[in-house]
Amino acid sequence: MSEAPDLPLWAALLVSFFIVVGALVTLIGSIGLWRLPDFYARLHAPSLGATLGTGSILIGSMICFSVLQSRPLVHEVLIALFVTITTPVTLMLLARASVYRDRIEGNPGPPEQDPEPTEL
């Protein structure tokens, strides 16, 4: 096993702040998934929690490894890029599939029709 790296106090406090904030945002998103009443409302909380929570944890990781200068930040940047791209796309696909299914089955709750585009 290796010893824990020695971070300066300011860096350790900053890293711990971002890690705790990321964990809390992810926890709030998970609680929203559990507490919100229907599928359409449940889509928002975990997607925002995952994106913002992961982003905050990645910022903490970037600060830690920047101060230690042990490796480049390519990993964190790629993770942030993939999470930022894939989470909204997944949310849109789940919502469209659910709206389509609810319309076909005649379930109450989904919008009757797509909104008309507005001109600027």
TrEMBL record:
The chain crosses the membrane at residues 12-36, 48-68, 74-95. InterPro entries: PhaG_MnhG_YufB. Keywords: Membrane, Transmembrane, Transmembrane helix. GO terms for molecular function: sodium:proton antiporter activity. It comes from the Bacteria. Pfam families: PhaG_MnhG_YufB. This is Na(+)/H(+) antiporter subunit G. It comes from Starkeya nomas.
